[in-house]
Design goal:
mainly alpha; disordered C terminus
């Protein structure tokens, strides 16, 4: 399916869903035709989710340059749908990049370098446990997959940034503080060996407090229950 066709279809579905779900009928003031429409939209979303996940399971999609545009369109569609069902396969391909390694380190944003990361951030909180697992497991490997670990940490920060208000800088501070807090909870629940690796992650640039406000927010987290 061509990339533009996928995006147009998903965008139309998103707009239709927003109109129906925000209508008085969605809050129980009306029933009938609108309720049927809502049910039909939910069913269509489920069908789209299933088709997306099945497409992602095609290994050649991730390796064949001729299918790159289709793949990028599907990844964007997964982000628009915000479907948790796509999280496992997006995690498996978190370090997939359509770019050469030199390009992605110098000229492109993380979303451009690792497109699955943007979809995971849009999925939001349901993606956090899997991203934490990436950081926990990959940091233990003999040949550390720093791309995956660093990307996972940035994704977690950006997911929590979405809950913030005000200036972008304030959201970033909140995102880092919440990400640190979640990792500290994991530390408390983990065996010593895993806990030691997780503590090391707190020193990574993506999470390390870089301002007075960062440090103020980070300070109480060590005593979190």
């Amino acid at each position: 399916m061509p990339k533009m066709t996928i995006l147009v279809l998903i965008s139309a579905m998103a707009i239709a869903a927003a109109l129906v779900l925000s209508s008085p009928a969605a809050t129980g003031q009306k029933v009938g035709a609108i309720t049927v429409q809502k049910s039909a939209i939910e069913t269509t979303y489920k069908d789209l989710e299933t088709k997306l996940v099945n497409q992602f399971k095609n290994d050649s999609l991730w390796t064949d340059p001729k299918q790159r545009e289709t793949l990028l369109g599907l990844i964007q569609a997964a982000g628009v749908l915000r479907t948790p069902a796509a999280v496992p396969v997006l995690i498996d391909h978190l370090n997939y990049s359509p770019l050469e390694s030199l390009e992605r380190t110098r000229f492109y944003s993380i979303y451009e370098a690792f497109p699955a990361s943007e979809a995971l951030v849009k999925v939001g909180l349901p993606a956090v446990p899997a991203l934490l697992e990436v950081a926990k497991v990959d940091s233990a490997k003999a040949t550390r997959q720093e791309d995956r670990t660093a990307t996972a940490l940035v994704c977690i920060v950006r997911i929590y940034e979405q809950a913030g208000e005000g200036k972008a800088a304030d959201k970033h501070v909140l995102g880092k503080a919440m990400a640190r807090y979640q990792i500290e909870l994991e530390i408390k629940a983990s065996q010593p060996e895993v806990a030691a690796r997780l503590k090391e992650l707190l020193t990574w640039p993506a999470l390390k407090p870089s301002s007075a406000l960062d440090r103020e927010l980070a300070e109480p987290q060590g005593s979190a229950p």
